[in-house]
Amino acid sequence: VKLVESGGGLVQPGGSLRLSCAASGFSFSRSAMNWIRQAPGKGLEWMSTITGSGGIARYVDSVEGRFTTSRDNGRNTLYLQMNNQKPEDTAVYYCSVGSTRGLGTQVTVSS
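Given the sequence above, the corresponding structure tokens read:
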């Protein structure tokens, strides 16, 4: 299993970023996928899960309505569209399948 996140960076409050997660080594289209994050000095926080078909996605309350998880099973890629970002969204963002996660991508929300 290999997961590689990309797309992080510095964004101003209210701005947007789209993260990608390239997956390989397992049956991507049959696997529910997750986004999790870790803010500075804090533990891992579950953010979102999407079913294998992409038909259902769930979110933690703090990002509901601002973030959207999607997937392209033809490209074995998971996405996280982040809109109206807040300073408290600053964290390292990881995609995960089961107990495996990638190395993460840093997102910093600051003016």
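The radius of gyration is 13 Å. Try to locate this feature in the token string yourself.
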